[in-house]
Amino acid sequence: MNTVTPASPPKTTGLLSAIVVVAALGYFVDIYDLILFSIVRVQSLNELGITAADQVTSQGLYLINMQMGGMLLGGILWGILGDKKGRLSVLFGSILIYSLANIANGFVQTIDQYAWLRLIAGIGLAGELGAGITLVSETLPKEKRGYGTMIVATVGVSGAMLAYWVNEAFDWRNAYFVGGGLGLALLALRVGVYESGLFEQAKKSEVERGNFFALFTNGPRLARYLKCLLIGVPLWFVVGILITLSPEFGKDLGLTGPVTAGLGVFWCYFGLVFGDFASGTLSQVLRSRNRALQVFLAFCGLMVGVYLFGIQGASPTVFYAVCFVLGISVGFWALFVTVAAEQFGTNLRATVATTAPNFARGSVVLLVPIFQYTAAALGQPGTPNRVLAGAVVGLVSLLIAFWAVSTLPESFGKDLDYVEE
User: Fold this and answer.
1) Average pLDDT in the 205-222 region?
2) Rounded to 10 degrees, what is the CA torsion of 150, 156, 157, 162?
3) Where does residue 140 fall: left (phi above 0), alpha (psi -120 to 50 degrees), or beta otherwise?
4) What is the pLDDT of residues 325-336, one digit of tens each?
5) Which of 150, 191, 203, 345 has its CA 20 to 30 A from that of 285?
6) Which UniProt keywords apply (predicted)?
7) pLDDT band at 197, cuts 50/70/90?
8) What proportion of the chain, given as a percentage, has pLDDT over 90?
9) DSSP structure class, residue 383
């Protein structure tokens, strides 16, 4: 890698600057819109004429896959634009697209309309977090980066709780309207947010920026990239399968009463608020991103075991309590994105910080059919064994993630003022 030699030091900012506030609020609306479908899945599908339990499950997974497929496409698009055109253009462009798409979601009348709009919303949702984390990482002093991204995550994941409360107060269509309106309102906060000084310096150099395929032309660089992707997969196994399918798992576990995906999401993301705060703080205290991630991955493995094998026949209250602690255990999302951003030079940083979380989110597209196949293989005809399938898929994803973080270079306190050759 080459070191950029600036004419003057890049401009830095404080923890509560406009950049950090806008990134945090952007992620708040991002999470609101991203998780809203999991909350309104049953209600919205029922109103659209899908009432059979197996169809609600299969059509719900289809719509999730469309949303996550959009995020895969959007991750590449926004990542490249972030390194070519700037972090700010991606931050606000993505907010505009997912806001308009979610307003349109409130008007859907058919499954096909629903699916295509979830795809478009997914493309929009793909850009905000990576651009926000990159901007915060490049404008805060290196000693405070972990605290800055912790603020972004802690504020952001609480958007899921607002999604639950709004859906309880209004119907599912109005919940989509609220999410879109919040995003459009956020665009008014553009004033006072400035572009990353490191990006401005890289733009003046001769180095190529935003070349996604450059990640695949160098062996060590590709290995770093793939490891960054793998660290985030367990979170989306938990949210995309265990929590989204809470009603189905509740029946399989023989709970004493029904549970809803909405409350499962609420309690999981409530836990994520504490988890993101704790993981960011732990990485600063330990002065190590990798050790903090290892602690949380081990904690996540423990809680997945409790969820699947420790609460058979329990009450819904106990189930939701486990969802809350499970949420704490996967509260390493912003830490994971921060690590991805810190692993790469300025000319590829936004590309990686945007594609890595979206490819991790998009892993649900692969995890869902693998989970369904495994459940069918381990169960009886017509009676899939979701509990054992969850254990197998969860264990494999956690072991791979633990290996990935254990073999990545430590990035705590790393100087980000360099470019990739």
Assistant:
1) 87
2) 150
3) beta
4) 999 999 998 899
5) 345
6) Membrane, Transmembrane, Transmembrane helix
7) confident
8) 47
9) B
CA distances in angstroms from 279 to 46, 60, 273, 321, listed in the order given: 39, 31, 10, 20
Rounded to whole angstroms, the Cα distance separating 173 from 163 reads 12
Q: How far apart are CA 421 and CA 288, in angstroms?
A: 26
CATH code: domain of residue 311: 1.20.1250.20
For residue 197, being part of any structural domain is answered with no
Burial of 206: CB neighbours in 10 Å, binned 0-12, 13-18, 19+:
exposed
What pLDDT does 362 receive?
74
Amino acid 363: pLDDT: 84
* Residue the block writes with tokens 């993981």: 279
Identify whether the C-beta of residue 195 lies closer than 8 Å to the C-beta of residue 88: yes
Domain membership of residue 119 (yes or no) is yes
Q: What is the pLDDT of residue 2?
A: 44
Q: Residue-wise over 70-84: b if at least 16 C-beta within 10 A, else e? A: bbbebbbbbbbbbbb
Orientation of helix 53-84 relative to helix 111-139, angle to 10°: 40
- For residue 314, give the DSSP letter: -
Q: How many domains does the chain have?
A: 1
* Structural domain harbouring 388: 13-186+217-408
Residue 150 three-state SS? helix
Q: Which helix (H) or strand (E) holds 2?
A: strand 2-3
Compute the half-sphere exposure of residue 338: CA atoms within 13 Å on the CB side of its CA: 33
> How far is the first Cα of the chain from the last one, in angstroms, to the nearest whole number?
5
Give the global pTM: 0.82
| Residue 3 belongs to some domain of the structure | no
CA distances from 72 to 219, 362, 396 (A): 23, 6, 22
Q: How many residues does the chain have?
A: 421
